[in-house]
Amino acid sequence: MAEEEVKVFRSWSSAFGLRVIWALKLKGVEFDTVYEDLSNKSPLLLQYNPVHKKVPVLLHNGKPICESLVILEYVDETWKQFPLLPQDPHERAKARFWAKFGDDKVLQSIVFGILFKEGKEQEEEIPRAMEILQHLEEELKGKKFFGGEKIGLVDLALGWLAYYLGIIEEVIGLKLIGQEKFPLLLQWIQEFSTAPIIQENWPPRDKLIAKFAASREAVLARGLK
Amino acid sequence: MANEVILLDFWPSPFGMRVRIALAEKGVKYEYRDEDLRNKSPLLLQMNPIHKKIPVLIHNGRPVCESLVAVQYVDEAWNDKSPLLPSDPYQRAQARFWADFVDKKIYDIGKKTWATKGEELEAAKKEFIDALKLLEVELGNKPYFGGETIGYVDVVLIPFYCWFYAYETCGNFSIEPECPVLIAWAKRCMQKESISESLPDQQKVYEFVLMMRKNLGIE
């Protein structure tokens, strides 16, 4: 088999980059990591992602693929072991729907609606966030993972929640989900965050807390201008 | 085998148009139902309880929501003709990237060209043209984004063409001088029945936008 060059450009803290390395590691694909300092992006990154200039970027045999969910589908189609998407078109559509829901609604609400807000604005977002998370709770009924018995695309797409939600809760000093209303989500968080591969690749917790606290401060300071 | 296909849609929605085009490309017979978005049908609320939005494709009673998800579904469920996504994984990734780009840029920025004024409008017009120019580079000298035939990105982008007249008239700018290659591509697409039959008349869209502006209290 021809030698393959697989490189992942990512930052130490980005949840989007984690999606990509999880997928590659779950499939047993060897790759190199290039860590980017997002305040000082490398010329290579800008060359490989000229449109968005963001991480992650997957480089496969010299060809770049950008946007984490696009990368996940590419990885799934290129390396067939440990499939992330089911075969049935309707099941695939459902998985894509939930991956998009995660980015459009969950991430938006929790990071931009809660972490990056304070006071009344933050307060008002919380019931909306609860409603959004309730949809995830219902989707988990009868399942160990969003992908069923095994981790799938949706688990990787939502995986950031399993670790970063706790960090966000600590930064804002508020517990967002509890056993009473979100038993399945809490169980998924436990299962996913301690699963093989996933468990070994979380960024350092205290570093993340410091980073998220600093980001929050910076955003709030900008808003007060 | 029964193959019942219903599309819950709203005639000016570019997102709905994407699904119409995909179904037409595949030659799928379906029932089109126009929703009154101020009075959504029980079926819509049942089939898309989370977002309560159109388009919703219902195939043999099972819903598919989100236009990009639905277009990919149509491509996979009716894979016997007119493939929308290429077969090569890298080409597929490129197509998905640009479809995502269209979703991130065209609708929201396009909306600003008819919903804002002054400095915000000027910034939006520039951003909009810049986005279209990037798409022109991606198109290159291919007849379609999909190459020799209509593909995923063509289906995802072309619906906005029937909104261009509204953008240009409300925003007081002209797209063709800035993006002649893209407009040539759009006119080429409109020669295809699957597309021309799926897009409403641009004058009707413009009148719809004027009504929306009025409702939003603009001008």
From TrEMBL, chain A:
The lineage of its organism: Eukaryota, Viridiplantae, Streptophyta, Embryophyta, Tracheophyta. InterPro entries: Glutathione-S-Trfase_C-like, Glutathione-S-Trfase_C_sf, Glutathione_S-Trfase, Glutathione_S-Trfase_N, GST_C, GST_C_Tau, Omega/Tau-like, Thioredoxin-like_sf. Residues 4-83 form the GST N-terminal domain. This is glutathione transferase. Gene3D superfamilies: 1.20.1050.10, Glutaredoxin. Its EC number is 2.5.1.18. Keywords: Transferase. Pfam families: GST_C (PF00043), GST_N (PF02798). It comes from the Eukaryota. SUPFAM superfamilies: GST C-terminal domain-like, Thioredoxin-like. Belongs to the GST superfamily. Residues 88-212 form the GST C-terminal domain. The keyword ATP-binding does not apply. It catalyses: RX + glutathione = an S-substituted glutathione + a halide anion + H(+). It is an enzyme of class 2 (transferase).
From TrEMBL, chain B:
The keyword S-adenosyl-L-methionine does not apply. Keywords: Cytoplasm, Transferase. It comes from the Eukaryota. Residues 3-82 form the GST N-terminal domain. The keyword Cytoplasm applies. It is found in: Cytoplasm, Cytosol. Its EC number is 2.5.1.18. Is involved in the conjugation of reduced glutathione to a wide number of exogenous and endogenous hydrophobic electrophiles. This is Glutathione S-transferase.
